[in-house]
Amino acid sequence: MSLQTGSVIADRYELLRLIATGGMGQVWEAMDTRLDRRVAVKVLKAEFSEDQEFLARFRNEARTTAALNHPGIAGVYDYGETADQAGGAPLAYLVMELVNGEPLNAVLSRLGHLSQAQALDLLEQTGRALQVAHTAGLVHRDVKPGNILITPTGQVKITDFGIAKAVDAAPVTKTGMVMGTAQYISPEQASGEDATAASDVYSLGVVGYECLAGKRPFSGDGAITVAMKHIRDQPEPLPTDLPAPVRELITLTLGKDPRQRYANGGEFADAVAAVKAGQRPPMPRGWTGGATGASRAADTAATAIVPPPARPGPQPVVRPSTPTPRPAASSSYSDEGGWTKTQKTILGASVALLLLAAAIVGGYLIFNDTGDSTPTAPSTTTDAGTVAPPPTGAGTTARTVPTTPPPATKTVTETSTAHPTTTPPPPPPKPTTTTPAPTTTTPPPTTTTEPPPTGPEPTTTPPPRGIFGLPIPGAILHGGNAR
Question: Which residue in 78, 84, 121, 142 is the catalytic one?
Fold first, then answer.
């Protein structure tokens, strides 16, 4: 390959500046002399240009990628093969959109990590862009920070679509493929299995982990060591200062079994959007439980109230009531088969005592009935007491996730205010009195003036996508990774 500044490819693309050099070839900034626009031209190395099987797959992928139309995907404009001016092997080249932006790996090198809002915005944008390709049956196979560009306005652009799939199909580059992407490769790819849309989701989850933690989930002395860790090891948990839904999102995305991950970029992006709205991420459609769902071993409806999710205690076992065993016949009946006189006397006295006890208990319940038929939970009433609770509840319920208070909390608050537990209400009038006491019919004025508790305002509109304020220094023209 004998290219230099000023060289013209296919009598059309004048090379202006070398952007990058990688394992597959070189990426140049060039001028399209026919359309008078700047483009990025990727020129493949001779070993790829001479491999007819690779070229056939590469042409097909170039045509497929060129049909993708999404602002998050760097466009493909042209593909061709031309003779080398120096008389060498023919040159295969790909003409792409020249992106005014910076690779994510350069951003991470400068900043260390992204904020939670920046990382989630980037992940959602990338997932939406991947979904366009997944819908078209195209798998990227090489999602990594070097292939994710960020413009000065915060727009994400994915590059090298289809290139990774073509490389994976060429036997001479299969080992190089693993070596080049070991830090972000999915377990199934590292095991030699076919990559699917869920493989792209896993790689994007690794990118998200790195953006949030400031480091990759796995590291090692060599690429093979790292690839093996993707197959068999679990990553170190994300920092606990990140919200539980964010950590759970990444954990689900990094599942070893592709069938229990988010199936494609769109499903993953929807999960990110839910987390951005303050909700827990939805479970993947194929999820059946396992290590990735440890945080959801408890009932979802119960644990969704208070973050982080807590394992509920053992539930009390309700046993059916059983009748009292009947006494033996020899002690209950006389020899003649009936009750004795002494037994009848004792039985009559016992019945009289039981009736007297029932009358006392019933009278106590009647004289202490205030007419409030709303049941209240004893533990919740104790927490509320006679003091009006704060907007988000009392005690440990101050960090609740739901945007509106549970109905039980509101009921307990009104009951506790109208009838304090420390002062019992006066007994009702005797039956001979015809005029009822006014205090039993008029509710206290505090019940009409006490404002109902309100929770935090729900977040119904997520922040606008595409701009998350990355401090990109200047405009960097980039045409993708040269690999």
Answer: 142
